[in-house]
Design goal:
heterodimer, A: 306 residues, alpha+beta, BirA Bifunctional Protein, domain 2, eight-stranded mixed sheet, three-stranded antiparallel sheet, 10 helices, globular, B: mainly beta, SH3 type barrels, OB fold (Dihydrolipoamide Acetyltransferase, E2P)
Chain lengths: 306, 189
Amino acid sequence: MLSELRQFFAERSVLEVETPLLSHSIGTDPQLEFFTTEYCLLPQRQTLFLQTSPEFAMKRLLAAGSGCIYQIGKAFRNGESGRFHNPEFTMLEWYRVGFTLPQLMDEITELFAALFREQSLQKTQRISYQAVFISYTGLDPLVFSYQDYCVFARENQIADAVAICGHDHALWLDFIFSHQVQPYLGENALCLVYGYPACQSSLARVNKDNAQIADRVELFINGVELGNGYYELADADEQNRRFDRELAIRQQEKLPVTVKDQRLIAALESGLPECSGVAIGLDRLLMLLSGSVSLDDVLSFPIRRA
Amino acid sequence: MATYSTNEFKAGLKVMLDNDPCAIIENEFVKPGKGQAFSRVKIRNLKTGRVIERTFKSGESIEGADVVDVEMQYLYNDGQFWHFMVPDTFEQYQTDEKVVGESGKWLKDQDSCTVTLWNDAPLAISPPNFVDLTITETDPGVRGDTSGGGGKPATLETGAVVRVPLFVQIGELIKVDTRTGEYVSRVKE
C-alpha cells in the first residue's frame, strides 16, 4: 500500500516531505486531545506537543513556496481507543496547490480506484452533507430546529441525544450523523460527502456562494470514516478568530490549555497559496483493503500491547 | 459503589442505569475525526433481561452496580420461596418465582447453580448449561424404535417437559441443554 501511494504521487510530481512530530504548539480544536512531553534542555524545561496531524507544519511549507506536497507519518490523539481508533496512528496528508475541492475529490477518486482495483469497489458516490442528512433522517442539517431534532431522536432509539446535545447544533449533528447516517455510507464504495455545515468548518473555507456551508469533504467506505479534506482556509485573520473561539471553548470546558500556533498565522499572513488538502487514516485504509474488521488486525501492536 | 467513566466501559461491567442493575455487553467508541466522541453501548437490564442501546458522551460516568455471581446449592422450594445456600459459608438465600422464572424447571434439589446477587439479594438464577434429570413420564417405546424419526414429549423429575427420542424410557437419566431446552443424550448412572 505504501509503495503504491508513493508511486501515485511520484507520477503526479507531488513532493514527499517530513515535518516534526514534536512541536511547540498544537491545534486548538476542542475535540482533539493531545499528548504533551517534557523537553529538557537544561536549565530550560519546555512542554512540547506530539502532533495530532501534520497540517500546520505542512501549511507553513506551502506558504514558503514548497508547491504540491504529501506526507506519510504518525499522528497522535490522546484518549482515542476503540475498534477504529488507536491513539498513535499513521496518516497520509497531501496538498495540491491550485486545486479546488472538486478537483481534489477527483484525485481522491483516482487514488482509491488504484488502491482498490482488486476489490472492485462500486462507482464513487458524491453527495452533499445536506442531501445525505435529509435522505437518512428527514432533518435539515443547516437549519437547527430543536423540536424536530428531539422528535427524531425519540423516534429512533437515540433519545439520549436530547440530554447530551441540548441546544448545541454542532453536537446534534455529530450525534445524529455518527449514529444514523455514517453507518450506511459507502456500501462497498467510496462515498465523498461535501459541503459540511459552516458550524463544522474546522479549517475549511466557508463556501463563497453559500455562507451556510464549508468547502470540506469527508471520505467513507462501508460506514468507516477514512479522511477529511478542505479547500484550505488562507485568511490569517479568520484563522486567528477561529483559534480564539476554540481557545475560549477550551477554557469554558476546562480542557488542557494550548497555545495558538503563531508560526502558522504568520505563514498565512505571508500568504498561503490557493490549495486543497486531505488527510487519510492509513491504518483504517489498510483495514478496509485487507477486509479486516478492526484496527487491531492491522496494527503490529495496538496501544494496550505497545 | 464506584463510578465508571466511559473509558472504563467494557463487556461484563455491571452498572446502574435508570435505577436498574445492568451489564454492558458491548461498547463501541464512536468519534468523527472532527467532532464529539461518544460511547455507544449495548447493555442488558439484569432485572428484565432486555437488551437496549444507549449512548454516552465520552468522559461521562455512571454508577457501578453491586452485582456478583455466586455458585450456590439449590436446597428446596417450600411452595412460595426457593431456597439456596452458599456451600462454603452455609449462608442461605431465598427468592420467589419472579426471580427464578424459567430457570426453576431445571433445578433439582442439591444441584448447584449460579445466583446473581444485587445488593446481596438474588436477582437472577442461572442453571448449569447441562443438567442430568430422570424421566418421570413419557409414552412407552415400541420395539424397533431407533434414534431416527420424530421423538416424543417426556416429563422430567423437576416438571420440565422436553422432546426425547422414541427409545428413551421412564426412569432413565438424560442430559439436557438448559439453554435450548433440548435433549442431549442418555446418561449412564
